[in-house]
Structure formats: structure tokens, C-alpha cells
Amino acid sequence: MNWITTNLRLPEDLYIELKMEAAQERKSVAAIIRNRLFVGRTRLEKDKLLKRLDSFGKKLAKNHPGLNLSKTVIDTRYER
Predict the structure, then answer these.
(1) Cα 77 from chain centroid?
(2) Distances (CA, A) of 65 to 50, 59, 68, 69, 72
(3) Distance between CA 35 and CA 17 in Å, rounded?
(4) What pLDDT is stored for residue 41 in this prediction?
(5) How many Cβ atoms sit within 10 Å of the Cβ of residue 14?
(6) Which of 1, 14, 55, 62 has the fewest CB atoms below 10 angstroms from its CB?
(7) In this structure, what are the phi and psi dihedrals at residue 21, rounded to the nearest 5 degrees?
(8) What gap in Å lies between CA 6 and CA 20, rounded to an integer?
(9) Distance between CA 21 and CA 17 in Å, rounded?
């Protein structure tokens, strides 16, 4: 699995809650957030999502040859 790093802005009280939970479980805050994001998702759902994303990527590549979506997303991240 490839990992993407991102930044989140959280209210201070939620961040403190996450820090306390992470300390109690001896996990990182990132691990607690990932766990909350994927609670209830089965491997089948993840595989279905990946299949849909792959299909979308193939259609995009067919309709827009030469477009590098990853580069475009990265470039737009730093535009202001």
C-alpha cells in the first residue's frame, strides 16, 4: 500500500482527545485517526474502491493522453 502524507487542521479539544487516546493505547495520533477513518470498512469495500479508482484512471488516461494527474495535483497544492 502506498501512503500519502497530508496535513489536517483540528480543533484543539479534538486534538487533545486524540493525544490522550493515543497515549492510553500506546499508538501514534496518526494511527488513531487512520483507525477512525476505516472503522467498519471491510477489505471487500477497499478492493471495490481501488477497482473503481483504477477504472477512472484508465478512462482519464484514454481521454487525456499525456496528462500526469499526480504531477498536476502536486503542482496545484503549492499554488496560491
Answers:
(1) 15
(2) 22, 10, 9, 11, 14
(3) 15
(4) 66
(5) 10
(6) 1
(7) -65, -40
(8) 21
(9) 6
C-alpha cell at 54: 483504477
C-alpha R_g of the chain: 17
Q: Tell me how many degrees the CA angle 32-23-8 measures, rounded to the nearest 5.
A: 40
* 3-class secondary-structure state, position 67: coil
Q: Kindly report whether the global pTM for this prediction surpasses the value 0.70.
A: no
Residue 35: per-residue pLDDT: 86
For 58-76, letters b (16+ CB in 10 Å) and e give eeeeeeeeeeeeeeeeeee
The string of DSSP letters for 8-50 reads ----HHHHHHHHHHHHHHT--HHHHHHHHHHTT--HHHHHHHH
Q: Would you tell me how many other CB atoms lie within 10 Å of the CB of residue 32?
A: 19
What is the grid cell recorded at 38? 476505516
